[in-house]
Amino acid sequence: MILRPLALTALLVALCAPASSHAAAPFDCTMRFDLSSWAVLYKHSSGNGTVTCNDGSTLKVKLTANGGGLALSKSTIKGGKADFSGLRRIDDVLGTYVAADADTGIVKHGDAQVLTKGEVNMSLAGAGKGMGLGVTVGGFTIAREP
């Protein structure tokens, strides 16, 4: 006898619950950035950017990258773009990504990389001026701008 009210309650909850067949819209974010780099065996990059997501949220960020390897370069990137995947919220872009970089170029300098941080991936691309030769491995950090 007690099972009927419980069964009826379970049926009503199931009917009123949102359908699970409707997947949530993907959470997409893009970052526009400026970055300056130099390397003499040790590579250092710094810059800033703005992350904008399809839900309307934005975040000003500070960028730094450090690494070591065989490198000799100096460059600047203005108006670079990065796309993120694997995000659930805007703060998921923050943190340090694993970076490996192969660099060749004189005068017109281009850079394209795919970096990873757990389940989050970032593909970044930019063009600028400078010269470079070498290979470096290190980390690319995105932090909230103070």
Task: Give the SSE layout.
Layout: H1 3-16, E1 29-53, E2 58-85, E3 95-117, E4 120-144
Antiparallel strand pairs: 1-2, 2-4, 3-4
Strands side by side in the biggest sheet: 1-2-4-3
The share of residues in extended strands comes to over 45%
Which structural class should the secondary elements be placed in?
mainly beta
Name the helix and strand elements from N-terminus to C-terminus, one letter apiece: HEEEE
How far apart, in Å, are the first and last alpha carbons? Answer: 63 Å
Helical content stands at under 10%
What does the overall shape look like? Answer: globular
Radius of gyration, whole Å = 22 Å
Main sheet properties: 4 strands, antiparallel
> Low-confidence segments, ≥5 residues, pLDDT <50?
1-22
Number of helices: 1
Overall number of strands: 4
Quick check: average pLDDT?
Answer: 75
Structural notes for this entry:
There is one protein chain. The protein is mainly beta and 146 residues long. Helix content is 10%, strand content 69%. It contains one helix and four strands, in the order H-E-E-E-E. The chain has one helix spanning 3-16, and strands at 29-53, 58-85, 95-117, 120-144. It has a four-stranded antiparallel beta sheet with strand order 1-2-4-3, with no helix packed on it. The radius of gyration is 22 Å and the shape is globular. The protein starts with a helix and ends with a strand.
